[in-house]
Amino acid sequence: MIFLIQYDRQEGRMISIESFSDSERSKAQDLLLTLELQLNQNGTDNEVVLLEAESEDALRITHRRYFEDLEELLNPPSSIRESSLHSR
Question: Is residue 76 predicted with pLDDT exceeding 60?
Answer without folding.
Answer: yes
